[in-house]
DUF4327 family protein (Floridaenema fluviatile BLCC-F154), 72 residues
Amino acid sequence: MTQQVIHPMVKLQRQVESLIASNLIKPTDSIWKIALLYGDEWAFWKKELLDFGFTTQDPIQDLLEVEAWDDD
């Protein structure tokens, strides 16, 4: 039995989907809005997002549309 490691960005997607389901944010909100909810962890997530070509002005929906995260 092998255990598959989940990419950190998949975890972020799941957390953001949960925030949307809880009506704390909307898919049309800018990514920067999740910074308010992540506090001290935001520096890490912001760097990850920027590394994948996102800006903090992009809509959250763009983040959720990614199907595969490649570190290449």
Remarks:
- The chain has one domain: 8-64.
